[in-house]
Amino acid sequence: MNDTHEFEDAKTEAIQQRNGTFVTLKDLTTMMADFASERDWEKFHSPRNLLLALVGEVGELSEIFQWKGEVPRGLPDWSPAEREHLGEELSDVLLYLLRLADICEVDLGQAALGKLRKNALKYPVERCKGSSRKYNFYAHNKENV
């Protein structure tokens, strides 16, 4: 094992010891910033470049599901190798998203909480439970659906 892997493993282990198995968005954001800094990659991490990389990773994630039809929750028919591949691609998307948010100085955790609050107002349970209609339907149709 080389020194870089040992260093990265040590950082990961330190986070796990501090948080148990729970890793925060902040932990991942810091690790991504350190990863880029250690490699002198900040100069390549413009918002545009990161967004394009993120879109590419979403494409790779989409390829996993392409041609499979509807896939049941829990992926019961997937092999361990397919699950591992899915985890890797989901991780790529998450890490690029966190890096983009960091570079744009957006607190993604707070932004997500704010978005959940807005969605709760746009999609009140009593009006939209069991419906897949868009929020503007509920705004224009005040009667119960």
List the helices and strands and how they pair.
Elements: H1 3-19, H2 25-38, H3 47-65, H4 80-103, H5 108-122, H6 125-128, H7 135-140
Helix pairs in contact: 2-4, 3-4
Count of beta strands: 0
* Uncertain runs: none
Q: Percentage of helical residues?
A: 55-70%
State which percent range the strand residues make up: under 5%
Give keywords.
mainly alpha; 7 helices
Question: Can you walk me through this structure?
Answer:
This protein is mainly α and 145 residues long. Helices cover 68% and strands 0% of the residues. The chain has helices spanning 3-19, 25-38, 47-65, 80-103, 108-122, 125-128, 135-140. The radius of gyration is 20 Å and the shape is globular.
Describe, in short, the structure shown.
By secondary structure, this protein is mainly alpha-helical. Helix content is 68%, strand content 0%.
